[in-house]
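G., before I forget:
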Amino acid sequence: MKEIVVISGKGGTGKTSITASLAYLGGEDLIVADCDVDAADMHLLMAPDFGKPEDFFSGELAYIDQDACIKCGKCQAVCRFDAIPIIDSQYVVDPLGCEGCGYCARICPTEAITNSQPNVGKCFISSIRTGTTMVHARLSIGADNSGKLVAKVKNEAKALAEIQNKIAVLVDGSPGVGCPVVSSLSGASFTVLVTEPTVSGLHDLRRVYELVKKFGIKAGCIINKGDINPEVSREIKDFLKEENIVLLSEIPYNVKFTEAMTNGKTIVEYDKDLGKIISESWEKILRATRSVGDPE
Amino acid sequence: MKIAIASGKGGTGKTTLSTNLASYIAESRECALSDLDVEEPNSGLFIKAELIHEEDKFKKIPEWEKSRCELCGNCQTVCNFNAVLKLGKMIMVFPELCHGCYACSELCPTGSLPMKQKKMGELKAYKSGNLNFIESRLIIGEEQAVPLIKQTIDYVDEHFSDEVIKIFDSPPGTSCPVIEATRDADFVILVTEPTPFGLHDLKLAVETVKQMGKPFAVVINRHGIGNDCVELYCKEDNIDIIASIPNDRLIAETYSRGDLLYPTIPSVKDAVRSISTYIDNFDLLDNGSLKSKKTGQIK
């Protein structure tokens, strides 16, 4: 069983629209995992039934019992996250600032502080319209631990793929280079980098690929809106060559790309020409992924 | 006045708006633009200014000193992040898991885990006329953006007075990095695109800023692509749309080269002008009440 992870570094390059198209093409052979838990959008194209909702608890959150508090201020003094402001002359925990380190509770002389595990999101195992299962999640607002929720989504998807003997898990990864992306990438067999020929697209591609390299994962690249800036597009191709990244395809700038999403459709369903390009990319991805050894 | 420019969905035009708005404002008054998307900072690609300062940014992590350690294991017990482990006769620290809470260090009975500096990123400050630009970038492999965002905001607070308009280009999403980037803001501008993805993520962003108790308004980018779902939603929920930037291939091409848009594209100039006016009015009307509110309010 393989794991194909689609990431982009920069947001808005078309990563989710492309992943949804790949999910459509792979159909029943895949389990789909939406690991962009911060702003999960895949469900808008996959018509999931939001099956098996499961609350996800992670980390800790401090709470101060005002009756037991003697207002000594020690908690505020040790908090490195400025998460214990004084409001109406009471020490209170700011839930959005609290990192859940538990230090305040450990040093409180009257044991007025307790920690609870907050609900950081919901995880779903849904049937989707491509005849398979998608694991996806909704992160609670401002929640920490999105990396852990990503790991949860991925592990559920992997377990299902094993049991059901699927060819691969297809993962829609998160933007950036921080903990959620690290979680998305770990264990990947092949990663698809979606970029656009803009100075920021190239900049972010370079950074995120540095991360991919650290993991030693083989990569391919889809250049979206390829004709918007031929010069940067060439620069991207030079970079790909240099780094031995497979150029999967170049998709021209086309309003149909967004129109498809607006109509709740994947690109392959909506436009023949764009669909053909993505189908060819999918063939290349499958070929490249087959040649990579299975993850442990 | 601090304005955070945010969005749930990535790639909706936060950086485009931040750089153009800051440059436009700087034509008439002092402005400080900070790129807080430290994982993928892009604003610098659009700002031509002179580098005036750079410094490494560090986070503090514990380092084991063997000599005095009695291997009591308290450090492992107090660490909620599994960043300190007692393995046989050794204490191991995993820096990438450490949140820098100091608990293991300060609660160690023998002082065997002093906090040491570890580089997590770099901050650079640039200047061109009235425009100040501050950018921080996280080292690849560092997983936590929040400490660097916090230190960058601290730098801005130390170096610029209240009179300077401060614009924060925030990271995407709704989790901890974006909370950190917007928690000090007086006003939040949410940039979105009029598509189902844009609307879905806008709703998440609205929920976030509402929970933080921040005043906010919406700017629609790539107006004309997609549908009218965002406008209908804003109307229904009484959310101000302060400007729209049209979907235009010329804009995409200009952006792709790393050029500012408003000097050559009138529709963008109109947009930044109306946003700037909106901010001025907001500043006049609400500044006093906001400042007094801030001290007593959970972000």
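Chain B touches chain A through 62 residues (CB under 8 Å). Residues 286 and 292 of chain B are 10 Å apart (CA to CA).

More on Monday.
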